[in-house]
# Entry
Amino acid sequence: MDATIVSDVLRDALIVAIKLSAPMLVLGMAVGVLVAIFQAVTQIHEQTLGFILKLVVVIIVLLISGGWMLATLQDYTRELFLIIAA
# Structure
């Protein structure tokens, strides 16, 4: 294996990891900010409120985009196996 092939594989792995985790992280962070603003305005400082809402959002994102995530991971794995076989 050449060093360029290894660097390409690692770069593709990082891109796939970012693609798969970004929707959950961005929406979870947005919900966290909205809950923090809501808690600051209403002076309700319940820690479980933010956790439960983030958990619900992450589960909904997984249910909606789980098929796309699986297809993306399968495509990357196929490309990786083809590189290994070559």
Observations:
- Residues 3-42 form the longest helix (40 residues).
- The helical segments are 3-42, 47-85.
- The chain has two helices and no strands.
- The radius of gyration is 19 Å.
